[in-house]
Design a protein that fits this description.
The protein has 8 helices and no strands. By secondary structure, the chain is an all-alpha fold. The model is unreliable at 100-104 (pLDDT under 50).
Length: 186
């Protein structure tokens, strides 16, 4: 599927060049990541206007924190963590806006401060957790859940059987859940 965008494999190199000041590489990267961001956001938000708002927020966040990307680490988990955090923020904001809040202003300030700290912690830990998945499991998760490949397409791409792809996907999800459960005990 050639959509005219830089392939996902090129994203880390483009980000590294962007960090070094290459505007062309940065523009290419931003154009290439929008479809992946849109896919991630649409999985949790059905309102098309809010989806586009979140995409813009993710792009602004990527711009603001691009210096935090480590070229030695995979790019997609870093992007996914940012996207997930901005999506959750948008849903929380919408939920607060739709509800009638009766708390005092002091309580609202405390909640906002707590959510901001929790958001930062979750974002950092999500990146660390995704980086701990074995490469093959991470790739299967990316293809099935981000690129919306069918099990048959993923099996064909990796020369595996569909049950083998299911098994890799299951192990990846189980590992992610286990990592999350271990995190809750800390």
């Amino acid at each position: 599927m050639d959509n005219g965008f830089a392939p996902r494999e090129a994203w880390p190199e483009l980000m590294t060049k962007a960090q070094a000041g290459d505007r062309h590489a940065y523009t290419q990267l931003l154009r290439a990541i929008v479809p992946a961001i849109r896919t991630l956001v649409r999985r949790q938000i059905s309102d098309p206007v809010l989806v586009e708002d979140v995409i813009q927020d993710v792009l602004l966040t990527v711009h603001r924190v691009r210096h935090t990307y480590d070229p030695g680490c995979p790019f997609l988990p870093w992007l996914m963590a940012i996207t997930q955090a901005r999506t959750v923020d948008a849903l929380r904001h919408r939920g607060r806006t739709l509800r009638r809040e009766t708390d005092t202003e002091a309580a609202l300030v405390d909640v906002a401060a707590t959510e901001s700290a929790e958001h930062q912690d979750v974002q950092e830990e999500l990146t660390l957790i995704l980086d701990r998945l074995p490469a093959r499991q991470r790739e299967i998760v990316e293809h099935i859940h981000l690129q919306e490949m069918t099990l048959a397409q993923a099996a064909s791409r990796y020369n595996l059987t569909i049950p083998a792809v299911k098994s890799l996907l299951h192990r990846a999800i189980t590992s992610l859940r286990r990592m999350g459960a271990n995190h809750d005990r800390s």
